[in-house]
Amino acid sequence: MQSINDKITEIFPQDCAIVFLEAHPDDETFLSGGLIYQLQNMGYQIYVIYCAAAADEKLAGTVGRQQEAVRALRCLAPDRICFLPYFDSCFENVDTLVSVKLTEAVRCCTDLFTRISRPIVLVSYDENGGYGHKDHIAVHKLGLKLRRTNTQIRQLYEVTINRSLFNTWIADHTHKEKSYLPQTQYWAENYGTSAEEIDYSFTLSPELTELKRRHLSGYASQMSAKEFPLILSDEDFTELFGTEYLKK
Ligand SMILES: [Zn+2]
Known about the structure:
This protein has an 8-stranded mixed beta sheet with strand order 1-7-8-6-5-2-3-4. The protein has 8 helices and 8 strands. It has a single domain (about 1-245), classed as Rossmann fold (3-Layer(aba) Sandwich), CATH 3.40.50.10320. The longest helix is centred in the middle third of the chain and has 16 residues, at about 135-150. It has helices spanning about 10, 25-40, 60-70, 100-115, 135-150, 165-170, 205-215, 235-240; strands spanning about 1-5, 15-20, 45-50, 80-85, 120-125, 155-160, 200-205, 245. By secondary structure, it is an alpha/beta fold. The radius of gyration is 17 Å and the shape is globular. The structure holds zinc ion (ZN). The site of zinc ion has 5 residues, from loops.
């Protein structure tokens, strides 16, 4: 695993727009919040596309979740935040990311990309979709398909969770209350990526780590200050979320 802190412009060429493909609001901050803010600070053209977060007033919480995303990403111009017309897979009888054909989602992204006048570095999810949510795995497949079919994309990276780090940390903290620990019962057994299979790491500055925690706390519909990860001590939060991981 190599640190990209000293070679960000090598990994992300400055003539490219950087497009983050996400499933749901809050995923962007969990998995790559530090990287997004860092690239934004360096003057990159950043886009964040949510693939499973369409909103409809008739579907509880969907409008609010979009608003939370726009607030968390207030460093980006509003037209850099896009929502595909597909809903979270928890909803039935509507078009969800997992119910539509991959080719349709590809076409939808390709239409969005025509607004971007530069080559693209695409950032999606690893093959396990981070912790294994089916919408996240769909985002992984979408990223791969786009990379194969769209010549505007110069490079694809996949954000991931460092499974070795999490497993060790969880084993060291089993004495803690349940609320202090991640709810791994919702995670796939093979979540994220083992440390030796991760290509790159990005270490957040203390300021970026603090900003990441603050932006996560803005997702009030998704997490409480009394639970993982917001309940974590600064030291534990930094250990688990103060470094972000990429595969190429
Ligand atoms: Zn998600």
